[in-house]
Write a structure and sequence with these properties.
about 150 residues, elongated, DUF4199
């Protein structure tokens, strides 16, 4: 139950911050530049790291697989929620946004808005996986202790 609370809460908060960041870019007319979405990785990273730290602070014994699950699910929830927001935005609010992004990418064929929505989802999941793997290396228990020596070959 603790794990569910942590990853659902942080997943929703990551998505809220991603949406707010996008809307701030929209406010200044900068949402047309895909290079600014690289800051999404920092937002994902901060949120996943905080979720993992929160989970480890509540548990006396930290298991790698449980921490990995918290990281993946918090980022996965954020990816899905942000993708849903972007799909609604691109299909209902600003239909020209997807066309403008595709023009910036200099694609000579029309791949449609669905391709952009799938790209957002895949980028969110891949960012989540990479960042969770990286953070778990920082947070896992070291085998370089007296207790860890019994775990070697």
């Amino acid at each position: 139950m603790i794990m569910f609370k942590v990853y659902s809460r942080y997943g929703v908060w990551i998505a809220i911050v991603l949406i707010a960041y996008f809307l701030i870019l929209k406010l200044f007319g900068l949402h047309q530049y895909p290079v600014l979405s690289s800051l999404n990785g920092l937002i994902f990273g901060f949120g996943i790291y905080m979720a993992l730290k929160k989970y480890t602070s509540r548990k006396s014994k930290f298991h790698y697989e449980k921490g990995f699950e918290v990281g993946l699910l918090s980022g996965g929830i954020a990816s899905i929620l942000f993708t849903i927001f972007m799909a609604v935005y691109m299909y209902q609010i600003d239909a020209e946004f997807a066309e403008n992004i595709m023009d910036v990418w200099n694609l000579e064929y029309d791949m449609g808005t669905l391709m952009l929505v799938l790209s957002i989802l895949i980028m969110g999941f891949s960012t989540t996986l990479v960042l969770t793997l990286a953070f778990m290396q920082l947070l896992k228990n070291s085998w370089n202790t007296q207790d860890g020596n019994r775990n070697t070959f």
